[in-house]
Structure formats: structure tokens, C-alpha cells
Amino acid sequence: MTGYKGPERVLSGIQTSGEMHLGNYLGAIKKFVALQHERQCLYFLADMHAITVWQDPERLRAQTFHIVATYLACGIDPKVATVFHQSGVHAHAELAWIFNCIARLGWLDRMTQFKDKAGKDKERASVGLYTYPVLQAADILVYKATHVPVGEDQKQHLELSRDIAGKFNHDYDKPDFFPLPEPLIQGPGARIMSLRDGSKKMSKSDASENASIFLRDDADAIARKIKKATTDPEVLPSEAKGLEGRPEAANLVGIYAALSGKTSDEVLAEFGGKGFGVFKPALAELVVEKIGPIGEELRRLEADPGHLQSVLREGARRAAAIADETVREVKEIVGFVG
Ligand code: ATP
Ligand code: LTN
What we know:
Layout (H helix, E strand, L loop, with lengths): L8 E7 L6 H14 L4 E7 H4 L6 H18 L7 E4 L5 H10 L4 H5 L2 H7 L8 H15 L5 E3 L5 H17 L10 E3 L34 H10 L18 H14 L3 H8 L4 H27 L2 H30 L4
Parallel strand pairs: 1-2, 2-3, 4-5
Helix pairs in contact: 3-12, 4-7, 4-13, 7-8, 9-12, 10-11, 10-12
The site of L-tryptophanamide has 14 residues, from strand 1 and helix 7.
């Protein structure tokens, strides 16, 4: 329990681990953009999380610029929201260590992302990959964030952050120190699946190029990937409940719904009874209309890394002013000599 009475604050981050795709946009960034005018928002680039698996240094830097450019191209205004890189604010790592001493091994053993990413040979996974959710809790709580917009796959990590906040408050008898952060997950884009396999989420680290629509893709690439997307031979049903057991069809209809702002039922009222030969070109046209301008803006922004770096530095300065104060308070609570 927490009696936290501080201000509402939104925080989220994206790993600098590759090319941004439609799942990142619909599950996360679109929500970031909408929230920035409603509450105080901090959006960061999780470069310290990215190195839990091997990253080539030059590529890591390019990916970091790519993601900040994506934030801006999608409409995040760095004068309104605080945009920064995780490694630019020391307090994340400092609080993460203290949280390593609060979190229990049993809690981390239950994390499904570690099992998925470590694969069969978990002895060879980095220790960072294992304690990844502890750093994530520090990212959130160092700003005493109350709301965290994320896709469905992050639900378990958010629960762990709440457990860490609750245990810290309890162990140090400070019931109102940390808030219990709430995930903001709902919405039609919360779980976009791979175009090649409807049982796997669309992911930056998917080996198949054709599994994901990247925000950088041009109109031809988008149309080609949608044309090649795995589907079944049936026509579309006229209501969403007819999509049960048809994950690939449900995914394409879900993408159409999320981009058009309609429900799946409304989309199917229009396309029910039609085959993919009709639906896929309509979907491609909609994706190009919504994503095309983002890709163009992205390329323009990426051409000026100096500007992107200054956005991050300024954001990190603003973020550190909040985060350093939390770490100062935590050190005192824990009993470190100031
Ligand atoms: P990786 O494959 O390297 O784990 P990722 O593509 O899953 O990367 P993240 O950096 O882990 O991307 O996620 C950034 C944000 O995008 C998170 O809020 C996450 O929940 C959301 N997200 C990622 N993939 C999807 C998806 N397929 N559908 C909806 N949201 C997604
Ligand atoms: N694990 C997240 C990225 C992330 C994050 C965070 C999201 C790192 N720290 C703090 C929200 C809040 C992911 O999307 N894979």
C-alpha cells in the first residue's frame, strides 16, 4: 500500500535496440504523444537496457539517434515533455543498485521476458538481462512516476516495479514515499503481432525483415510486406468475435482499427465478407497515409545528429534535477552517510 500524495507524472522508455516498428508506435509512442499535453511527461531512451544483450557501439549510438528522432517525428515536443537518454542521468544506476537489494530472487525468477530472451542457455545470458526489470523499476521510481504507458508485454515488469515500491515503503516504514506506478496499457494497439506469425509479437529483434513494418519503410516496402503477410484462406467475418482462432486476420484488422481510430467491429462492418485481396490493399493505403509522413520527418531529423544530441542533453539536465533529489532522499532513508 502507499499513501503517496505527490503529483501525477507519466514516464516511459524504449530500448535503443533497433529499428522502430508499428508495434512500438501503436503500443507506446502514440500514447506518449497524446499524454504530453495532459500531464507532466518524461520519455527516455533505454540505452542501458539495450546493452543487456550485445550491441555494437557505433550501431548503439546510431540507434539512440534513431529513437530520439522517432519520438520527435511522431510528435513528441521536447519543450513540453522531457526527452533524454537513460545513461545521461546517473541516478538510474544508483537507485537500481539499492533496488537490487530490495527485489527478491524469486520475483525475478518469474519474469517471462528473461526466459524468452535468455533462451535455452541461460547460463550464458548477462547478469544485466536478469536484473533488467530492477533497472526498469528504478527508471520509473526515480521520478516517482505514477503512470507508465506501455504495450501489453510490459505488464509483468510493471507489477514488479509496484512490488519493489511497496516493499521499500514497507521495509523502511515510509508508507507514502514511492507511488505504486500504474501501467497504461489499454487500447487497440497494445499488442501488434508479427506479420509472418500471428503468435509472436512484432519485435525490433525479429530476424525476419518482413515480420515488421518499420517507421522508416517507404510506401513500396509497406505495400510489399502487407501483401506478403501470412493470412488464412477465409473471407473476413462481419464481427470481431468471428476472428477467434484466426490470429493473423485479427492482427491485420487490429492494425487497421488502431490506425483509423475505429473498433474492430466497425472495420468489419465495412470489410466483412471480403477477402484479403480487397482488405490488404486498403490496409496498405491506410498504413502509408499514417506512417509515410513520420518516415519522411524521421529521415530529415536523423540528418542532424547535433540537434538530436542537444535535445537529449537538455532533457537529461532537466530529468537529473528530479532524479538526483529522489536518490538523495533514498540514501538518507537507507542510512547512508550524506
Ligand atoms: P525488442 O524486440 O528489442 O525487445 P521491442 O520491439 O519489443 O524490442 P521495446 O523497446 O521492448 O521494443 O518496447 C518499446 C515499447 O513498445 C514498449 O512500451 C512495448 O510494450 C511496446 N511494444 C513493443 N512491441 C510491441 C508490439 N508488438 N505491440 C505493441 N506494443 C509493443
Ligand atoms: N522494458 C521496456 C523499456 C523500458 C521501460 C522503462 C518502459 C525500460 N525502462 C521504464 C517503461 C518504463 C520495454 O519496452 N522493453
